[in-house]
Amino acid sequence: MPTSEGQEGIILLADDNCANRELVSALLSGAGYQVVCAENGQQALAHLNDGSIDLALLDVVMPRPTGFEVCQIIKSKPETRLIPVVLLTSLNSESDRIHGLLCGADDFLSKPVNKQELLARAYSLVRLKQFTDEMDNAETVLFSLALTIEAKDPYTEGHCDRLSKYSVALGEKLGLSEELRVALRRGGLIHDIGKLAVPEQILLKPGPLTTEERKIMQEHTVIGERICAPLRSFRHVLPIIRHHHERQDGSGYPDGLRGEQVPLTARILQITDIYDALTTDRPYRKALPVEKALAIMQEETNRGWWDASVLGEFEALVKGSRPLQPAESRR
Description:
This protein is α/β, with parallel strands linked by helices. 52% of the residues lie in helices and 7% in strands. Strands 2-1-3-4-5 form a five-stranded parallel beta sheet, with helices on both faces.
């Protein structure tokens, strides 16, 4: 359990009752937490905007807006939805608790608050938030490393960002779950992170690679998977990283998967990756027009390389949506 030896986290306490605020704040401060107090819902939401809150304790019955409403707002925003929320309430009916859960509450504490229960809840949920922050920091480092690879080649500027957006749009069109669309967004950004282990003389070689150089280059899929494997939140991203160079006919790498063996998310990334490569400038050619790029992709699909149904959906998306038009030539 935390002690008063040092700050253990920042807790937002929102309650319109002054006596309740003073009591709960004293208990938490004595346990080493920094407590930020709010008298109503509006003040609570204002404190949440600075991004430093580790836990929100919200009185259910308070004005402008209620604890239920503040909880719902917290859980609806990407920047705050991972903040644990505990509702403080003297309402003990089943319907009130169900309503709180539907608003996204992580836990409840009944009034009057029991000291030991309060500190136990705070300890557990603040630790959970801190673990989540560590995970987010690790992801940020990975994304930064991925961008360093892109920065080495001026002709790939913006490639990862475009790939991420194209893949998510195609995933939405194909009806993929939010979890898999998040994986596609992340996969678009870091699918080539394994190239950190590829020597620059191979990575930036202007001419064809030798057999040995090609073998080294192909290892980037396996290395990338290994780099990201410790992050449990990346479990749906790992197949994208490892398999985005497989082909439908089994001629791809690293595992020679065929047809449906290639994960759908990897097939989606393949299509968007090829499209972006064809419709942006390269040292050896100018960006191709959309129709020409799609024609080349169809030819390769006829050879058995790519998923025809995924390509068909992507082609319909490109032709029907302005945001998927390629960026204007930058060179």
